[in-house]
Amino acid sequence: MATNFVDEAVLEIHAGRGGDGCASFRREKFAPRGGPDGGDGGRGGSVVVVADPGLSTLVEPRLHKSVAAEDGVPGSGSNRHGRSGRDAEIRLPVGTVITDLDDVDDAAPLADLVEAGQRVVLARGGRGGRGNARFATATRQAPDRAERGRSGERRKLRLSLKLLADIGLVGLPNAGKSTMLRRLSAARPRVGAYPFTTLTPSLGVVEVGEERFVAADIPGLIEGASEGAGLGDRFLRHIERTRVLVHLLDAGGALLEERDVVEDYRTVRRELEAYADDLATRPEIVVLNKIDLVGDRQALRPAREALRALQPSWVVEVSAATGEGLPELRKIMLELLRKARAEESLRGVADA
Questions:
Q1: Within this chain, do residues 1 and 105 fall inside the same structural domain, yes or no?
Q2: Interhelix angle for 177-184 vs 326-351, to 10°?
Q3: Do 217 and 189 meet the contact criterion of CB atoms below 8 Å apart?
Q4: What is the DSSP track for 148-214?
Q5: Which of 276, 283, 282, 301 is nearest to 291 (CA)?
Q6: In the sheet that 284-289 helps form, which strands lie side by side, from edge to edge?
Q7: Is the Cβ–Cβ distance between 49 and 92 less than 8 Å?
Q8: Domain around 241
Q9: How far apart are CA 101 and CA 103, in angstroms?
Q10: Is 193's pLDDT higher than 50?
Q11: Do 254 and 138 share a structural domain?
């Protein structure tokens, strides 16, 4: 049975309390004044998140709601220190952003899991209390005080999953994104001749020669998506991390329905720009899809020229159904992706 795709969750975490220190005195037959020998309490366990590349959804945090680490063990006599509590480890998908619900809106995230195996401590365990042996001095040789263990940190977290993909396939419903992803990669998203076939983002690995990159099929956007219309507002976050946008337009359907394909393009662009300004600056390939439905290819010329006037990186014509034009599209995607990666590397060197 397929796992439900969950990209948001709220989780409460509780680090362990430190163990109490012990107030104890050595009592032996021939040492009536053996002195204090109370041990320290153990430290409480911490709550740690780990980025797991084998996970792709936040369904586990959604189901379990809260996670608690183990408390530290109290100290005891004969200077025996309590054992520290075990850490609680939470495994989350790579691409998860973690924020504190109690922070203000513009506060930085507590963690952004962008690398497999990345570990972040989100709540630290409380310190163990000191036993009375710690308080013995030359002038006070029989202290009877011991400290209580400290409480561990508590947080209420918001988890948001943002897919890590090089290429983002965007467009209105029925533009052919799912079919395109099936053609470009081994992914098998559901395909159907009705709006919102894709209800969850899908990932696929695209191969061009010896090189590989990841493409994501983002569910169809409609006008007003950035404000909550349709499904788009829920999935727009998954476009944020993509390096290159591939904007699919239903050229064949637009001609048959006498619809303005250029206005379709502008509709999606407005939603992307409304959601995040920097999306407008990403390298973009505009794809006139479903050209197998176009009897006279010259009929596409006005739309092609109007789109080029809007200055995307490329405008290409393909048919995801038949495969026409896809080899060229793969090469263009790889070319833009190489440039985007090179620019990121240069920015990283400049920031260092």
A1: yes
A2: 90
A3: yes
A4: PPPPPPEEEEEEEE----SEEEE-STTSSHHHHHHHHBS------SSTT---S-EEEEEEETTEEEE
A5: 301
A6: 202-208, 211-217, 167-170, 244-250, 284-289, 314-317
A7: yes
A8: 167-351
A9: 6
A10: no
A11: no
Query: Tell me: the pLDDT tens digits for 279-306?
Result: 878 899 999 999 999 888 898 999 999 9
In 3D space, the residue among 333, 168, 331, 179 whose CA is nearest the CA of residue 252 turns out to be 179
Give yes or no: residues 11 and 150 share one domain: yes
Could you give the maximum distance between any two Cα atoms of the chain, in Å?
A: 109
DSSP 8-state assignment for residue 281: G
Question: 286 and 220, same structural domain?
Answer: yes
In the sheet that holds 88-93, the strands lie side by side as: 88-93, 47-52, 119-123
Q: Which amino acid is at 207?
A: E
Residue labelled with tokens 């013995």: 136
pLDDT of the residue at 226: 43
pTM over 0.85: no
Same domain, 271 and 171: yes
- Band of residue 92 on the pLDDT scale cut at 50, 70, 90: very high
